[in-house]
Known about the structure:
Keywords: Cell inner membrane, Cell membrane, Iron, Membrane, Metal-binding, Monooxygenase, Oxidoreductase, Transmembrane, Transmembrane helix. By secondary structure, this protein is an all-alpha fold. The protein has helices at residues 2-17, 26-33, 38-44, 52-63, 65-69, 71-87, 91-96, 109-132, 138-163, 168-179, 186-196, 212-237, 248-294. Helix content is 70%, strand content 0%. Helix 1 (2-17) packs antiparallel against helix 8, helix 4 (52-63) runs antiparallel to helix 9 (138-163) and helix 11 crosses helix 12.
Amino acid sequence: MLCIALLVAEVSALGKAVLHKRVMDTEVEKRVTGEPLMSAKLYALRYYICLLGPIALISGWELGGLPGRAATLVLYEIVAPLADILLGSGIVGEKLAGNRVHRVSTDVIWFQIPLYLWVVAHGTMLLWMTSKTVALRWFEIFCLSWASGLVTSVSIAVAHELLHRRSSVDRSLASFLLSTVMFGHYRIAHNEHHRRVATAEDFATARFNETPYEFVPRSVFGGLIFSFLSERNRLSAKGEAWCTLHNEFVVNWGMSIAFIGLIWLACGIEGVVAFICQALVAISVHEMTTYIEHYGLLRKRREDGKYE
């Protein structure tokens, strides 16, 4: 109930915060898709479904009992896939498929609001989760952190979207999300992934016949090592020391360590274990998604040495 109240209260404030964003012109959309702006609203509805995750988790655990505590699993494993099937592959996207204009602006307010609401929901849920562990047994802490990790795995996807924005506010929110799932180096690694994707050099592309158990460690540690070395080399080229506030790797991981310290002081070792466990689950879910998306893809090298 607390989460519901906070989300509703933030709608007006966050709505104002995104008004400065460029909103798609209704007449332009009519010419492109043959539909008014309502089509974008309907298409954007699917992105609000993720907000049910924190609500289900908090409400279920507060209500108690097996049904309540299983609510998150039911939502993510049954309800979400069914909703995705029922909503279809996209109202606006299908109409744009045969048109010269292939992109619907992601600056439309209906697409912005769920991103910012998610940041609020994410922070609220983690505060609740860590404080909840004080009164739980270790088995319950494990179950709660596992369910929380399913929810916070969405935060990596939201952070990915925000990282590709030009706004410094959006990028800062992305850093906050990633730091709270101990994945602060993701932006650095992901930029390299864009360049090397579907090549043998990419640590985030699953090779043919590579199992998930082989891929996930290679991707996680490959991205971690690359990000550290990349920032160190970048600053070294400028004549700067690597351990400074100009080092994004250091700053974001410093935030993660700071969060752990604050949780330790406020909630003890139970809160720290829950925080780390939810982060591991979130990262694992993200990496498994990456495994499926890029499995077996391989670009050929052209005669000029570049990839196709």
